[in-house]
């Protein structure tokens, strides 16, 4: 089966004022539909840089990046932006919800921005389905200031899922949450994989990493498989 994501020999060098520094030194990674992968590594090891390349916010210096079998490492920005919004869902440590809109309206914004016109009833059904998928449908009419951090993050995950992305990229999504609430957020992310979404989670939390199908450690610019005892 063709991998959703296939990276081979991805490099990224930061050209500072004094000397260049290799952040990624030839990263290989493949992720299939429905698979979950954790990326761990010490602070500054390049995890977010790698996620930015996968999410097409940044470009590698060298290497090949196949998305669904298609080479996309050298795309022009306009085409990259299209793929970014149609193929990827993003979740960050901060929730970036609009305070004056309800949870449902926040999720709906992603549909309005991404898919062009949809009949109102259809849009509503998709929004409620996404909220339901992450267990917060009952909070649809609430505004973010009335929600807990974990609830807000689950609304943010619903917003990422509503366009039915092929890949979900989550960068420290539990970083601002306590352990118990963080576990619920991980449940919500894993729920997406049962529908065939690929999940790449960057985390410092060992327990959350261990819940993914695989854990990869980014060390000295390379990904190493980590086996938990
Ligand atoms: N735009 C930039 N300009 C200069 N240095 C950068 C830039 N982006 C990242 N870096 C440096 O590249 C290295 C990798 O950063 P990155 O954010 O990818 O690491 P990380 O593993 O995600 O770290 P953390 O776990 O702390 O979030 C760091 O040393 C960072 O300071």
Bound molecules: adenosine-5'-triphosphate
Instruction: Report how far the terminal alpha carbons are from each other.
Output: 30 Å
Under CATH at level 1, the class stands as Alpha Beta
Query: What is the overall pLDDT average?
Result: 92
Number of helices: 7
Order of strands, widest sheet: 6-7-8-3-9-10
For the secondary structure, the number of strands is: 10
Residue runs with pLDDT of under 50 for 5 or more positions: none
Helix content: 25-40%
Output the CATH homologous superfamily: P-loop containing nucleotide triphosphate hydrolases
Q: Architecture, according to CATH? A: 3-Layer(aba) Sandwich
Largest sheet: 6 strands, mixed
Instruction: Categorize the overall geometry.
Output: globular
Number of domains: 1
Q: Predict the CATH topology.
A: Rossmann fold
Order of helices and strands: EEEHEEHEHHHEHEHEE
| Structural class label | alpha/beta
Radius of gyration: 18 Å
How large a portion of the residues is in β-strands, by DSSP E?
Answer: 25-35%
Keywords: ATP-binding, Nucleotide-binding, Transport
Pfam families: ABC_tran
Protein name: Putative ABC transport system ATP-binding protein
InterPro entries: AAA+_ATPase, ABC_transporter-like_ATP-bd, ABC_transporter-like_CS, ABC_transpr_LolD-like, MacB-like_ATP-bd, P-loop_NTPase
């Amino acid at each position: 089966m063709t991998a959703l994501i296939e990276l081979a020999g991805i490099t990224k060098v930061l050209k500072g004022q004094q000397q260049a520094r290799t952040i990624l030194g030839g990263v290989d990674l493949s992720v299939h539909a429905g698979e979950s992968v954790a990326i761990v590594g010490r602070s500054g090891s390049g995890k977010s840089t790698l996620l930015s390349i996968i999410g097409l916010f940044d470009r590698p210096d060298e290497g090949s990046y196949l998305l669904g079998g298609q080479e996309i490492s050298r795309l022009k920005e306009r085409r990259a932006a299209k793929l970014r919004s149609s193929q990827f869902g993003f979740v960050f440590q901060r929730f970036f919800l609009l305070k004056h809109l309800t949870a449902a309206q926040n999720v709906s914004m992603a549909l309005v921005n991404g898919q062009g016109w949809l009949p109102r009833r259809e849009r509503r059904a998709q929004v409620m389905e996404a909220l339901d998928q992450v267990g917060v449908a009952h909070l649809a009419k609430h505004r973010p200031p009335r929600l807990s951090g974990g609830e807000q993050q689950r609304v943010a995950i619903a917003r990422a899922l509503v366009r039915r992305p092929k890949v979900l990229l989550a960068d420290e999504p539990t970083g601002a949450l306590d352990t118990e609430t963080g576990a619920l957020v991980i449940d919500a992310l894993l729920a997406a994989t049962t529908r065939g979404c690929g999940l790449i989670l960057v985390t410092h939390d060992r327990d959350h990493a261990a819940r993914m199908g695989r854990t990869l450690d980014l060390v000295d610019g390379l990904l190493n498989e980590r086996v938990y005892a």
